[in-house]
Amino acid sequence: MTTTTEIADKIATDYGLTKAQSKTIVEAVFAAVAAAATSGAETSIPQFGKFKVKETPERDARNPATGATIKVAAAKKLTFQPAKALKDAMNK
């Protein structure tokens, strides 16, 4: 697993930044993606993929312990669709 700290360390090493500077940049990118998602906007990163907000409708579900039917409220979720270049790179 890769953490934000590991990503920041790699950026600091590759681009000659301090770890604090690169950590700020990484956190700012994630904050921008989160802000766009919160407003319902799509974020597209070329050669990487798209983050989209998808609405899920209200549905019925079952409690596995009791078997009782419950309503699951409608919600929004964040989905990621990888770009073709990323898929191709993963499958080499």
TrEMBL record:
Listed name of the protein: HU family DNA-binding protein
Source domain of life: Bacteria
GO terms for MF: DNA binding; structural constituent of chromatin
Family designation: Belongs to the bacterial histone-like protein family.
Gene3D superfamilies: IHF-like DNA-binding proteins
InterPro entries hit by this protein: Hist_DNA-bd, IHF-like_DNA-bd_dom_sf
Alphabetical GO biological process terms: chromosome condensation
Top-level taxonomy: Bacteria, Pseudomonadati, Pseudomonadota, Alphaproteobacteria, Hyphomicrobiales
Keywords, alphabetical: DNA condensation, DNA-binding, Plasmid
Signal peptide region: none
Ranges in a coiled coil: none
Organism, as annotated: Sinorhizobium mexicanum
